[in-house]
Q: What sequence folds into this?
């Protein structure tokens, strides 16, 4: 569906999927990726039914479809229904032809069955529908991206930064 010509159809699909998720009390994940231009990487996130971040990572790539595949690879086994606004990432998993970074992530854990579904992107609040979890995933990815790199002209005070444990190899 074209994002500009099919606005009504996209909103109807989004509202229908959100109501279906809400009515069936399905344990779902929504995934998204956000570009971090200064680091030439993407922040990828997985959010749960409440819109809370369940998993997140940084992926070094300049291709958004690769980052979206990595986000799909991050979902956990307790949430078998997964929604993404990236048709190309969903198709890659359907074909069994995923990017190396997604395959590397999946090799770190037990492989299990998921149900992948495309969800229309950037619909905002959908009137008459439950919380738009795709927008929650999008906002979480952007927030984590913007948090990781100080923006130009913004002063970050040391007391407002979280110390992050790290190891060197």
A:
């Amino acid at each position: 569906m074209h994002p500009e010509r099919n606005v009504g159809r996209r909103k109807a699909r989004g509202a229908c999927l959100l109501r279906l998720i809400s009515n069936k009390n399905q344990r779902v994940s929504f995934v998204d990726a956000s570009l971090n231009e200064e680091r030439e990487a993407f922040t990828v996130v997985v959010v749960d039914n409440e819109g809370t971040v369940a998993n997140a990572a940084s992926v070094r790539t300049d291709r958004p479809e690769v980052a979206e595949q990595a986000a799909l690879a991050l979902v956990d086994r307790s949430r078998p229904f997964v929604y993404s606004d990236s048709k190309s990432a969903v198709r890659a998993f359907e074909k069994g032809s995923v990017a190396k970074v997604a395959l590397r992530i999946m090799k770190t854990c037990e492989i299990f069955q998921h149900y992948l579904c495309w969800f229309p992107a950037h619909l905002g609040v959908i009137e008459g529908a439950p919380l738009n979890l795709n927008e929650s995933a999008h906002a979480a990815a952007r927030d984590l991206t913007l948090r990781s790199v100080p923006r130009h002209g913004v002063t970050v005070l040391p007391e407002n930064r979280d110390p992050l444990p790290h190891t060197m190899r």
